[in-house]
Amino acid sequence: MAIDRHDQREALEEAEANAIGTEYLRADLLPPKASLATKDLLMQYLDQRILFYSKQDQEKIHDIHLKTDRLQNALWQEILPIARSNQTATIALTVSGMNDVLNSQGYVQASWWNRIPSTAWTLMTAIAICANLLVGFGARNFKKNIALFMIFPFVIAVSFFLIADIDSPRGGIIRIEPRNLITLKKILNTQMNTQSPSSGSHSASP
Fold first, then answer.
1. What is the pLDDT of residues 100-153, one digit of tens each?
2. For residues 194 and 43, what is the distance between their CA atoms, to the nearest angstrom?
């Protein structure tokens, strides 16, 4: 259960990076002024998405959510007037790409909220306690080999630790790293620097 959720979060991070990268390219279909503004907003948005995956305190996480919401609204408002006044296939493609960008963030957030239910933890804990009690009851007459009976509780404890760690995407040892988002940022920065040395100032480092 925890591993499936972990794999899903990694897949959604990749999908989000693809959505942002695709929309960055489709922004060239917009009028020049709107294209530059949209690309700049997408770079700022990409920075916030990378920060989302990093280990932060609750106050910082709340700040990231607020900035992300503002940038999403700004991105949508940037293309909305164009979509209303110029209803062509190319503009529709750009609008569809922006919709994918906004939706991908929602899918990621939902997957991070989707944790192992407390009832499942309660059931696993009850099973572990019962199993350890049975092992302890069976070991009462085997004092010489008592160390062997400690293996089972140790394995149970390690298993619980791994499950809890995998089910905590922001903290712990096993985390979701924004590898695809970071790679995308490097590629876009390289493209911007190649096209215009001064354009690199549009993006803020995470």
1. 999 999 998 888 777 777 777 787 788 877 877 777 666 666 566 666 667 777
2. 16
Q: What Cα–Cα distance (Å) separates residue 129 from each residue in 1, 35, 140, 164?
A: 21, 61, 17, 17
* DSSP element (H, E) containing 80: helix 58-85
**Residue reference for tokens 């549009």:** 202
What whole-number distance in Å separates Cα of residue 62 and Cα of residue 71?
14
Residues 126 and 108 both lie in one domain: no
Q: What is the pLDDT of residue 18?
A: 95
Residue 170 belongs to a domain: no
pTM exceeds 0.85: no
The whole domain housing 63 covers 2-115+176-202
Contact 72, 45 (CB under 8 A): yes
Give φ, ψ of 66 to 5 degrees.
-65, -45
The burial of 99, by beta-carbon neighbours within 10 Å (0-12 exposed, 13-18 middle, 19 or more buried), is given as middle
Could you tell me which residue, 40 or 125, shows the higher pLDDT?
40
Rounded Cα distance, 156 and 153, in Å: 5
